Amino acid sequence: MQTDRTKTERKITGNIDAERERQRVTKRQNETERERDKLSERERRQRLTDRQTDRQRRE
């Protein structure tokens, strides 16, 4: 009976570890997406500024 309990404990611990790893990966992916969004937002603003500058030069 002792081995069954240990096996169950290992299974539970393994599930907890797997869940922690999933959460860590998800958190990293979310941070990466936020960084990418910031970059794309920055690029979008820069392009807008560039277009406005080009327009002013032409006038």
Describe what you observe in this structure:
The termini are far apart. The chain has one domain (1-59). The protein has 59 residues and is mainly α. Helices cover 97% and strands 0% of the residues. The protein has one helix at residues 2-58.
- Which consecutive residue ranges, at least 5 long each, have pLDDT under 50? none
Quaternary structure of the protein: single chain
Order of helices and strands: H
Form type: rod-shaped
Total number of strands: 0
Q: Tell me the count of domains.
A: 1
For the largest beta-sheet, the strand count, sense and barrel status come to: none
Rounded to an integer in angstroms, the radius of gyration calculated over CA atoms is 25 Å
The N- to C-terminal Cα distance equals 87 Å
Helix content: over 70%
What percent strand?
A: under 5%
User: Mean of the pLDDT scores?
Assistant: 88
Region (Disordered): 1-59
Give a quick precis of the structure.
The chain has one domain. The chain has one helix and no strands.
Protein topology:
Layout: H1 2-58
Keywords:
59 residues, mainly alpha, 0% strand, rod-shaped
